[in-house]
Q: What sequence folds into this?
């Protein structure tokens, strides 16, 4: 028997503890394996895939494959578009969500609770089903094929509003706002000078979450954009669809389009996870 | 939450001395600021959601009653004809079956696994952060990347999964050709991407359960599994209901996985063996048959409400509940 960790009453046998670690390690392994293997394939050539057993360590072909990706689809443009769309949406969501979260958390107005409830309820609405009229709307606005079609509908969302409401009602002292009032601040002045600085940690997490989810959006960009002026996900799906058996090409593109996000996540994962878990606990 | 506390902020008037003539003016501006600005601050969300979320969804109903294509400027009102065609369409029922099958195969094991993983993580552990990050990593991976990666893993000739199976004497499974095999493969992708995310949501709820309950149960001699069944699950029931509903809504709208599995195919395989309802909508959308596609959307909306409602009742009344 190993030394028991006496954490209050949570005493458990060494065997159960080992089983826990074993299970979690297995889960970690299966979470990482597909990502690792895609790097392996992306750095090989197609012939290597026929080897038995399959290749298990990366090869030296990665940059040659990446060059083929850039020859096949406008990948640099796709990267630029994705950064532009994800970045501007993230900034807008941070701003508008903090603004609405401030109102819901700290201001008193008629219908506040009903409106907040309505906001949360909209998260359940399957808006994907409205995609055809949404497309028709974009045709009317002449936004099809442009990044406006991705940015404008995404400027603020219910999750962000709810997330910032939760954070501000917990973390922003009302006394601070009262002091601001005494100093003659308007409501907007309070928002600008008191709320925004105080909201920064949560807004940053929200910004990262938003950036990642917009970066990964697929269906709507596929519908409304053209293959000549795509986002990363649309470009990847072009790669994957045009060359059915060219897995190396597809996975080289995938690695390229996923790696930045995975790296950021590995570095800032703790904060991001904290944010997701905070957003999950409802009042 | 619902208490209407006296307006503390409004009770503090601006301090700066104002000349009497302008005082009334200042007072009105102040009232307008305090009473009006909250609405202005929450307005962007409601305006945007109305314009790009709710309006399109409602307008779908109107479009579904028409012979409506993008090619012609004239839309003929045809009443419920699209729905009649739809209900007689074998492809529609095939897509419905596939959606439900993939939904059950992916959601049920996923949520059980997620609860169990959350239970394992809900105790003092070394490398807690590492385990959490690896759990969420699949969710950070884009759905396109997931399908491309898994299509390779599930490949018939050079896929890693078939290679492992061949060690056990099972040879050359063509995952994307059969109904059950393709559904299993697609469900695997969905599970891989979402189990960890849901586990973290459950974990967040579990951490809010008072420690004393577990301490008392431990003194009474209840083991881990009993504690999970008798304490944890009843206590986090609201979160379970929430996750079941959102997972159901998500599962009903699965699109990218069947679209990109193997190759880009809007019919979901040669025999439509994995065409989901969303994909069926998309197929008719690309044919520019907007009226018909909208009719499918509305049927799907009904299904979602129905399935989510059934799941809600089922989860609420489920075993081990406090209610």
A:
């Amino acid at each position: 028997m190993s030394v028991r960790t006496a954490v209050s009453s949570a005493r458990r046998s060494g065997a159960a503890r080992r089983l826990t670690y074993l299970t979690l390690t297995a889960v970690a392994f299966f979470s990482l394996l597909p990502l690792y293997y895609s790097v392996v394939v992306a750095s090989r050539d197609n012939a290597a895939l026929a080897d038995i057993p399959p290749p298990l360590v990366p090869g030296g072909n990665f940059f040659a494959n990446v060059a083929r990706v850039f020859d096949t689809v406008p990948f640099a443009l796709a990267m630029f578009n994705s950064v532009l769309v994800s970045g501007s949406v993230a900034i807008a969501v941070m701003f508008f969500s903090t603004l609405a979260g401030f109102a819901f958390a700290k201001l008193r107005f008629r219908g506040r609770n009903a409106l907040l409830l309505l906001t949360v309820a909209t998260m359940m609405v399957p808006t994907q089903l409205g995609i055809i009229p949404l497309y028709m709307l974009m045709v009317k606005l002449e936004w099809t094929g442009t990044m406006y079609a991705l940015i404008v509908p995404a400027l603020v969302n219910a999750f962000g509003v709810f997330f910032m409401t939760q954070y501000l009602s917990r973390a922003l002292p009302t006394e601070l706002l009262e002091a601001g009032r005494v100093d003659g601040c308007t409501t907007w002045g309070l928002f600008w000078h008191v709320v925004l600085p105080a909201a920064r940690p949560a807004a940053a997490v929200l910004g990262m979450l938003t950036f990642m989810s917009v970066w990964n959006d697929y269906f709507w960009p596929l519908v409304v954009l053209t293959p000549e002026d795509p986002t990363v996900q649309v470009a990847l799906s072009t790669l994957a669809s045009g060359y059915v058996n060219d897995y190396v090409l597809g996975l080289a593109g995938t690695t390229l389009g996923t790696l930045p996000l995975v790296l950021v996540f590995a570095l800032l994962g703790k904060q991001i996870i904290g944010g997701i878990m905070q957003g999950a606990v409802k009042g | 939450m619902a208490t209407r506390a006296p307006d503390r902020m409004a009770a503090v008037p601006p301090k700066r001395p104002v000349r009497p003539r302008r005082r009334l003016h200042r007072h009105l501006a102040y009232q307008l600021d305090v009473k009006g600005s909250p609405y202005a601050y929450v307005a962007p969300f409601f305006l945007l959601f109305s314009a790009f979320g709710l309006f399109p969804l409602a307008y779908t109903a109107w479009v579904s009653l028409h012979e409506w294509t993008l090619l012609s400027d004239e839309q003929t009102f045809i009443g419920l004809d699209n729905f009649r065609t739809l209900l007689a369409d074998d492809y529609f029922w095939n897509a419905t079956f596939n959606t439900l099958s993939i939904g059950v195969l992916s959601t049920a094991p996923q949520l059980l696994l997620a609860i169990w993983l959350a239970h394992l993580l809900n105790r003092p552990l070394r490398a807690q952060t590492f385990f959490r990050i690896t759990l969420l990593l699949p969710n950070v991976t884009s759905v396109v990347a997931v399908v491309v990666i898994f299509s390779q893993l599930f490949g018939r000739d050079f896929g890693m999964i078939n290679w492992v199976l061949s060690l056990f004497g099972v040879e050359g499974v063509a995952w994307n050709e059969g109904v059950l095999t393709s559904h299993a493969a697609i469900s695997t992708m969905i599970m891989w991407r979402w189990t960890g995310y849901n586990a973290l949501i459950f974990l967040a709820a579990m951490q809010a359960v008072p420690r004393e309950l577990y301490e008392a149960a431990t003194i009474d001699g209840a083991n881990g599994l009993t504690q999970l069944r008798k304490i944890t699950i009843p206590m986090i029931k609201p979160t379970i209901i929430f996750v079941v509903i959102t997972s159901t809504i998500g599962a009903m709208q699965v699109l990218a996985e069947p679209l990109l599995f193997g190759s880009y195919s809007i019919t979901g395989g040669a025999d439509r063996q994995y065409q989901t309802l969303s994909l069926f909508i998309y197929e008719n959308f690309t044919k520019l048959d907007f009226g018909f596609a909208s009719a499918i959307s509305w049927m799907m909306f009904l299904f979602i409400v129905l399935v989510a409602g059934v799941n809600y009742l089922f989860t609420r009344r489920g075993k081990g509940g406090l209610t």
